[in-house]
Amino acid sequence: MAVTLVRSRAMITKTLSDTAWEEIADGALIQEDGIITAIGTFDDLHRKHPHIPVVGSGREVMLPGFVNAHHHVGLTPVQLGSPDMPLELWFVTRMVARNVNPYLDTLYSAFEMIGSGITTVQHLHGWAPGKLPDVEKRAGDVIRAYEDIGMRVSYCFALRDQNRLVYQADQDFVASLPPELRGPMQRWFDRFQLTLDDNLDLFRNLHRSHNAKRRVRVQLAPANLHWCSDKALAAMAELSRSHDAPIHMHLVETAYQKEYARRRGGGTAAEYLDRFGLLGPNMTLGHGVWLNEKDIDRLAETGTCICHNCSSNFRLRSGVAPLNRFEAKGINTAIGLDEAGINDDRDMLQELRLVLRAHRVPGMGDNEVPGMGQVLRMATVGGARTTSWRDSLGTLEVGKGADLSLIDWDSVAYPYLDELTPTLDAVVQRAKASAVRAVMCDGEVIYQEGRFTRVDRDGALKALHDDLSRALSDDEVERRKLSKALLPHAKRFYADYIDPSRHEPFYRPSSRV
Asked: What mean pLDDT do residues 330-346 have?
């Protein structure tokens, strides 16, 4: 049995409120086979257990491992030639993406995540071409990458069975195009061959193969309301109940999605999901930017979770999510980096600062803006609760999983930091990924002093670079041409999609965010 004593200058075990947390000076813990078995000061635990190997120098701050509760890809869209633009048009530009090796691609973002203290990721996989065996192999490659590097993954494949490019039936959109674009557009749709039954079988197969593993879970992901038929929503609800499987679903990321829900069901997207019994503690809604007050009340009543993707909302002009309203209503909130954070990477420490600052409304009320405890809770406990690990992760307590990071205090405090500055305030506002000295997942050190203990980072990145140095394939060339040609048609489709008299303005007053 693997036993380790982890020491720190200060150990932040858990949050107590939005502005308070439990901190132990000279804190330490003992983990045995991935589970925390003792908490205390280093002097006390080391005196009782002098022969247990020690991790940490005593000059670091120990935090619970972060959870990236909404993640998609390795190489970012920008790296693959898709610039930031409004979400609905961005779907079209994403067609230019290369055929990337899924194993190497997953490792690429895993390096960045672990390097910023992330130990668990909710991986939302989608747009995999081919039939069921092809997609299942790609899913296996993604999961294997996380297993090899040592972090936890909650994997789900995003189900789409309709409206796969614009908020209109595929065949109707193809018919609306000029004749010269209809063939290439239909070939793009034909690449994705999973039927609804195939999607359900994919979940069952992956759940059977992986869900009992210590660091792998398999969840459900109806991709979004516009992407899922009523039959698909009903099937997702039934699978969630039969397998006690959490669900992660994009919802009302943009005002256009809000209008789609009105056209489809005569109400809101949240109300539509409620018809299928999908709201509840097993459901996490990604984004939720355009939820209204009634929706928020209903989510709070049912215990539904929300994942806040702050960087993505800014980058794709989706709007500012009403995070302060979510918090005021007691909704469990998590943090997701989506495709990439504000700096086009997967740096959770940077994302904490963005969430902290993006919702600071004018005024002097003490509880009207996010606090240090809140953003830490969102990135730990809040994220864990959106996965099958639920309350077994997210805090440093006896009986919980030994997932943590050690952050060099000198990197935060040098050359000077006032002694009255609280530890967590200093870490959240000043710590950079370069200050992360060690990351432990399930009791195993998977990153230490800039080195990944299980995977050769330089070799993996070189292999990814070499793989993408090849010439573009014929289908990659066709998709690049198609993407450019489709953009004006997508713009035309959405030009009059929203009736301004029916909707709030895109800009939300600061008091609502």
From this structure: 97
